[in-house]
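It is worth pausing here to work through a concrete case rather than discussing structure prediction in the abstract. The textbook approach is simple: state the sequence, then state the predicted structure, then interpret. We follow exactly that order.
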Amino acid sequence: MRPRSPQNPDGPAAKARTGVAGLDDVLAGGLMSGHVFLLEGNPGTGKTTICLEFLLEGARAGEGGLYITLSESAGELRAGARSHGWELPDSVEVFELVPPESLLDPDSQQSLLYSSDLELGETTKLIIEAIERVQPSRIVLDSLSEIRLLAQSSLRYRRQILALKHYFTRLGATVLLVDDLTSETLDKTVHSVVHGVVRLEETAPLYGAERRRLRVLKYRGQSFRGGYHDFSIKTGGVEVFPRLVAAEHRTDFSREPQSSGIDTLDALLGGGIEKGSSILLLGPSGSGKSLFTLQFIAAAAERGETAVMFVFDEELGLLFHRSRQLGFDLEALCEAGRLHIEQVDAAEISPGEFAHRVRDRVADSNAKTVVIDSLNGYRAAMPEEKALILHIHELLQFLNRQGATTFLTVAQHGLLGPMKTPVDLTYLADTVVLLRYFEALGRVKRAVSVIKKRTGQHEDTIREFQITGEGLALGEPLAGFQGVLTGTPTYLGGSSPLLQPESDEG
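Step two, the predicted structure:
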């Protein structure tokens, strides 16, 4: 076979796209054409699916592909492709290199893959014959585990891999070698030979669906997006969610204050909430955190803006019903295109996928108000607290740089008495609003105060608020409070400044 012309060394290197958009983003455009790459991971991590997408992408670009399988049958590969709705075109050939039926004969002393030195040479010969016959531009060799077993020694295995690499280099094809990491020893032989290495990993949380992530371990002469990137396997293929880097996203906007629609709440906040800032609402369960976010959503809709809301803890039907009783018709806002609301199952989604979903919704709807209710549910999707803080930091920075105002709620542990916050994010938020229950004159009442505002001045007072059939109602600043920040507030003032229940008015 005549080798293909080498690429122009002075021009930019051509890239072979993998067919997985997120992976191409991580790889800065794809795999460098004419080179050999390693895709490794334990069984079930998605290697075969990515390889099929790699060959199908080549077919769409007019490139021939060859899938050399030493472990699965051609029928199994085609069935796997059909499970994603794919049919392999004529330009993609599957070459099945498996032991012959004679292996079932106990008297057989030789086989293609399981005997002495002859098998490795025969296997290599059949691989090269298939490549010479098909003359593909893209090749998948699945998997290296069988070749490693046939080689029987590390030295022989390395020599065989080097020989294959030199052959592929002269050929000019883009090659994916697949390793299922089933050997007892961690052999790094291929890592030093290939042009790049992508590792796929899978973890199983104590509850919920498995989590998958990938990392580029090596890419010669090419920058790439480092670190771990979550991905999932769904009907239709692999979806990779590149790690969010907020510094890569910036837009110009004016940070003018925006009204909540309630004069007394604006006064408490020092004139409103600045555009492109983040607000953390802290308080015990049932204290009104979600209701405050709904008020800001309604104000955004009144200004003609779009809002997005991600709900972790409440079923949407119940949220629609409850909010309607409080004077907020969320369904009408959704129908008018002013609100996009989404239920999030923390047990079924990875943090990387959630961040990707937020980015997409904000970009698709040009949303300027984002609500995440609540971080308690988001935390349930995280394996450890440190990772949660890093994820939230990047997400908030990204949203702020897009000019979106972000509202986060956190339910503190306990209803009365000292409160505990499951994760401390107060230093990340630009504004922190504290909600509390307090007892006064035989009634349980609610109080709100602003304890931090990075973007300007705010009231240092405490205001009582009520939840009515028309939403929020805030009273005048109250004096006579003691111990609010301890979680056990005591009201020592008189009854005249307090808001009266609706049933008592008039």
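Step three, interpretation. The longest strand covers residues 443-453. The chain has a mean pLDDT of 86.
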